[in-house]
UniProtKB/TrEMBL annotation:
SUPFAM superfamilies (alphabetical): alpha/beta-Hydrolases
Organism: Streptococcus cuniculi
Protein name, per record: Lipase
Length: 388
């Protein structure tokens, strides 16, 4: 089945007047936001400093000379191919890019990146990047299980406010993975006047937001413009508050690999929709929610601080660090584990065991539920026959 790359090839010569901006276009702009544009797109929040997308792509090629930068999670062959397709496509090449911010703060435990596109004369598309390959980025994600606001959400709010202040145009806000969470959160924090200019908020397989955000008046004001899109076997997109109006798309990948949007199937100028989530997605979602609900905020904080702290103390700051001298990295991790106190080891072991046991119990219940339903149905028929 066709995917995002096939769609870009198909619509390459159609302008936005003939085929209006849609969520596949925005997904394409979201995906290339993972690429390192630090020296290619100005951080200025003014369109005067904006650079055409085809110029950015040309500079990217010149900078890396066809070699993929050594960031395995964020810089993939598909994203580089996508950038090349956008550069050559009449539909996308003249889009302007500006306000690129890449803010990584180890001390603050923050990983945040964003950029904005000017599409035509009347539209801005603000994209928040999802989690990159930094351990701090992943740790910050898990902070969302017990924190009402994480540092990246504060930065996203400030970023979107600057976009609102510098223009009067219609704004689309989007992101993949954590980026979609940031898009929803930041949009919910805008003033009523600014929210009226937000046409749509698209969250591509993104974690939900904290219940306190959902209860806020700012969220309620824009909830009808939030469009969550998740694959059949979504795991990331089911975290926290599960979206009520999510659209489920077909994916040709398996398991967690469905989080990669290039695996999502396209039909015409939109996603190919699936009838329902897989049983595995539902079970994993129930497992994580049950596990986190069984712990208090302090237990969750201590667990994630210890878990990710071992990686950081071992000098592993990026997932890609594992690919360099892997045996040594594993040895350093084991050494860090040995340095933990008995109480710390006990806590990690206890919570991991609880997570595994929770997953097993939910899997077992899923196996017995169909039998229970059939048994109840059979007993009801038997009871009815006796009455007759």
């Amino acid at each position: 089945m066709p995917n995002l790359l096939n769609y870009i090839e198909e619509v390459a010569y159609q302008d936005f007047y003939d085929l209006p901006l849609n969520r596949l276009d925005i997904l394409a702009l979201t995906e290339i936001a993972y690429l390192p544009f630090n020296d290619l797109v100005a951080p200025d929040f003014t369109t005067e400093k904006a650079t055409r997308l085809d110029h950015v792509a040309t500079q990217f090629e010149a900078l890396y000379h066809g070699d993929t930068p050594n960031l395995s999670v964020t810089i993939t062959p598909e994203r580089i191919q996508l950038l090349q397709l956008l550069k050559d496509a009449k539909r996308f090449k003249a889009i302007k890019v500006f306000a690129f911010i890449d803010d990584y703060d180890k001390g603050e435990e923050k990983q945040f990146a964003a950029l904005t596109y000017k599409v035509g004369q009347d539209k801005l598309v603000t994209i928040f990047r999802g989690t990159d390959d930094t351990i701090i980025g992943w740790k910050e994600d898990f902070h969302m299980t017990y924190m009402a606001e994480i540092p990246a959400q504060q930065s996203a709010t400030a970023y979107l406010q600057q976009i609102m202040d510098m223009s009067t145009q219609t704004v689309y806000v989007a992101g993949h993975s954590k980026g979609g969470n940031l898009a929803i959160y930041a949009s919910s924090q805008m003033t009523t006047a600014d929210q009226k200019r937000i046409a749509q908020i698209i969250a591509y397989d993104s974690p939900g937001v904290h219940p306190s955000v959902i209860a806020s008046s700012g969220y309620q004001a824009i909830k009808d413009r939030i469009q969550p899109i998740i694959p059949q076997n979504s795991i990331v997109g089911m975290l926290l508050e599960t979206p009520d109006n999510a659209e489920i798309v077909e994916s040709k990948a398996f398991g967690l690999l469905q989080h990669i949007s290039f695996s999502w199937e396209v039909e015409g100028h939109d996603f190919k929709l699936a009838p329902a989530l897989t049983e595995n997605s539902i079970q994993v979602d129930e497992t994580l929610k049950t596990w986190t609900a069984s712990l208090n905020d302090e237990e969750l904080k201590r667990f994630f601080d210890l878990l990710f702290g071992m990686f950081i103390d071992a000098g592993i700051e990026r997932l890609n660090d594992f690919t360099i001298d892997t045996p040594k990295k594993i040895s350093l991790l084991m050494r860090q584990q040995q340095n933990l106190t008995d109480a710390e080891k006990d806590m990690l072991d206890r919570l991991f065991r609880r997570l595994i046991d929770t997953r097993y119990q939910i899997w077992k219940e899923a196996l017995t539920t169909p039998y229970d339903k059939v048994n109840q149905w059979f007993q009801s028929l038997t009871h009815k026959d006796k009455e007759e």
